[in-house]
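We both want to read discrete structure tokens more fluently, so let's practise on a single case. Once you have written the record down, we can walk along the chain together.
***
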Amino acid sequence: MNRGITSPIIGVCLLLSITASPGNEFGIYPGADEKTPSRAQYFSWINNTNEGSTEEHTLINLGFFQWMQEEYGMNLDIYAFDAGVIDGPGFYGKVGSEAFLKQFPNGFDPIYEKAKAMDTRLGHWGGPDGFGDTPQEAQERIEMMAGLCRDYDWALFKLDSVCGELRKEKEPYFIKMMEESRKHSPDLIALNHRLPLSPEGEAHMTTSLLGGRETYIDVHMRNTTTGTHHRVGAISRGLTPGLTRLSEDHGVCISSCPDFWDDDLILQAFNRCLILAPEIYGNPWFLRDDEFPKLARIYNLHRRYRDILVNGMTLPASYGPDAVSRGDGTTRFLTLRNLTWEPVTYSVKLDAEIGLQPAKKIELRQFHPTEKVIGSYPLSASVEIVVPPFQACLLMASSEDCPEIAVKGCDYEVIRDTTDKPIKINLLGMPGTTANVSLHGNSTDFSSATIEAAPVDHLLRGEDVEVTFPGAALKHPYHRKLANLQPIGMPSDAEVLYETTVFSADNNALELRAIERSGETTIPAVKSARDAFFNQPLFTERGVSDRFMFDGDATTTFFPSNRYGDISQHGGALRVDFGEAISPDKIEIFVPDSASLQTWIKEKGDSASAEISHDLKSWEKVTLTCGDTAILNVPAGTEFRYLRIPAFSPEVSEINASKGEELIGRDRWRASNLFAPYAKMGFEKAWSASVKLEEAATGSYLCVAINGAHGNEGAYVGIRTQSGHIGAPDRAPSYAANQWEFGKFITPENYTYFIPVSEELLGEVFEVFILGTKTCSPDLKPELWITTGKLPLAGKELIIRRATPTSD
């Protein structure tokens, strides 16, 4: 049993709430009311797209959540299938049909049993109709939907207009379907995704979609201002009118651009705190191994306090944008945010201003971005809280003893706090600093403690332990503005600057960029879930990875996506970076459809050629011979690293380079196919700044903030150093991608380019450039900042073992 989590009792309380509720104006109780505690959910949209999931894939995903429960005590109330499990875009299906059994040969039974063993219930995406054209067909639909609740304890219907709208004459069947379903699942949540229902039909729905917005980062939700990460737009999202909770904000997407996902989830769970919270979707297994404890911590903390989190109040404007306090008279959770480039200090007043009743002493703690015991204060004391740029902050103010394990003297992260395992805490401090650390609260239940494996049992007796954090102390703020960029004439190496950036970037699906950011995993359940996603047949069929050209498999291909029209920039160009200088005799480009290659050759005529370079400065044309394959005939002895072919659109299955009879290794090869040829960009404006960077915290990166209107793809960034050039491998909103789910990327203002700080940038003067097209406003206000992904804190592991035997 997990600390403070008693699912059966919670379920009883929920049913009592349902019984006592008067319902809405039609006398209907729509599965929840404004005071119903939130339910923690995951749903599978963009883990699978409209083709739907499968039994095997779903069981693997549930295995991940089972591991999260066993390792960190994280409980999931609802696992919801998204599109394609029964219904799909434009069609209605049936449980037991041939199509259904192809995906779920054993029906829902094995999935239901695995979920039930975790105290997790199921739900699904579908449409509002499906009642056919006869009373018999309508009754079959009603029986199927109600049967999910009767036989599988279904917890959620997500009804989406993607399937089509409800025919007016079928509304009586819809109402009956909801009535019959709730006979078996009285607490059934019904989500209205963009459905125009009559008032009586709407009365059966629990929620509507907040702003009609999905939250897939840089696909459906993007930044509208410059900022330090991709989720500035997401954490800028506002509140429901009057803090109503029977709405659905689509949760937090963890699939693309994962950085700062926890700030996003803190606001979703504790700020808006809607009926589904915490709510995530996509691919949470794309997080780094060190991030899963934070995911569980947010879920666990919310669950322990969700009964009081239903009570919310907005805070005065002095607390910043859309600040909220939730809780009761003795315990309040406050969510603050900073949407600016500078740290912001807020004054928190510990009294009725934040919802507290009078008390002698009030303890203030922080749970995000790090955890810390801020202090104990008298009523009405004002405490200054600093919120870092473009982040959220979660505080708890309470006049009661807090049961959460805590440390005084430094910031920390609770890695694991379950009753059946030793407690793990990551002690945090700035590099090169020292802190006197003590346990806060009752420690009689513990038997021993270690820091970095060294015994510190005196910590359990209330004594301090001196902790020195590794690394050199910083002389400058880790986050600071470095320069304003000023207008200049077009630099002579503009082409090199542009090509360096587009060669450092890619056009792979955002999911591939996310997994590159997170690196390899050592956790079997995480690896299985990742593999299940990437091994889906559709993932390879959509040609969204450059690795498909270098994997030795002729059935996998890479090509410019055209599912949503041409998304290339000015026809794009196939670019290949071989990772090092090579001197091949021949390069072969294999295509599965030689007719498309011949068509391309005819369209290009004399311009059907390729270019090679060793340094991105000088380019040499090479002839392109096309038959069933394209062959680049490289002059003997030519050494180069880069290849580009303008407007090359055919589907490519493999690229090989050979020296004599030997193939050259391809492990370091990378490619892109959507970025425009330099000649077609038409750069005519430029801005620059010269900087000498003496120091950078671990994990630092430069942010080139292009404040103002520049037009879609109208501004690019690059760096010139004393030894060469450095590109910007990332940008918010993201560079164009051959997308897994959707492909339109149009953002005409406020790009921010991100460049990791390497050794090459330290200690010497370097120049940062912006290249602009005619669409760039002359009033741009570009700035250069340095920052880190999160606070650059060093850590030491504290392990506390319980007095009763536990497993490690």
Remarks:
- The radius of gyration is 28 Å.
- The mean pLDDT is 94.
- The first helix runs from residue 7 to 20.
